Structures are given as C-alpha cells and as structure tokens.
Amino acid sequence: MRLYLQTVPGPTEAPRYVQIVLEQDLLGGWTLYRESGVQGGRATLKREQYMERDDAIHALENARDAQLKRGYRLMFSQGLDGPHAR
Asked: For 40-49, what is each residue's pLDDT tens digit?
C-alpha cells in the first residue's frame, strides 16, 4: 500500500510531501515507511515494524489522518485493499 500526500505550493516555495508505504516482509511482519520533505530537497525516512497486519494498517491510517489534518492533500493511492482518504 502506498499513499502520497502533498501541500499546496506557495508562489515562492516548493511543495512539501509525505509518502507512506506499507510492505509485508519475508517473515510475515509489516514495515511502515514514512518519507517526508520538500520536493527537490532533502527527505527524512522513518521506519516502524509491526507483527500484525491490522496494527500496521491502523498505524498507516493514523499517519494519513494526521497529515490530512495538517493540510496535506492525498495525491496518489496504490494498493487493492488500502485505506482511502476520509
């Protein structure tokens, strides 16, 4: 599952973005990646491990909702059973 969120760019500034990716690892666990930064600039990558799929999806939804509350807009969503913006 992959979500890409972005702010509305100002007249003199590049838009900020957040990319949230949820992947299953080879051992059956789940990894949640959160990348954020300014387009064309440096980015920060954070990684969290989850043993249960439901816990990982809940964390993805919480991360998505937090960014939506901060004014980010969902630009792209990939994944057949991924959560959708509320």
From this structure: 889 999 999 9
Backbone angles phi, psi at 62, to 5 degrees: -65, -40
3 dihedral zone (left: phi>0; alpha: psi -120 to 50; beta): beta
**C-alpha to C-alpha distance for 21 and 32, rounded to whole angstroms:** 6
Name every residue whose Cβ is closer than 8 Å to that of residue 39 and which is 6 or more positions away in sequence.
Answer: 6, 14, 15, 16, 17
pLDDT digits (tens, 9 = 90+) for 9-21: 888 888 999 999 9
Q: How far is CA 17 from the centre of its chain?
A: 9
- Global confidence as pTM: 0.84
Look at residue 86 and tell me if it is in a domain: no
Which residues span the domain enclosing 62? Answer: 2-78
Instruction: Establish if 69 belongs to a structural domain.
Output: yes
Whether residue 83 is contained in a domain is answered as no
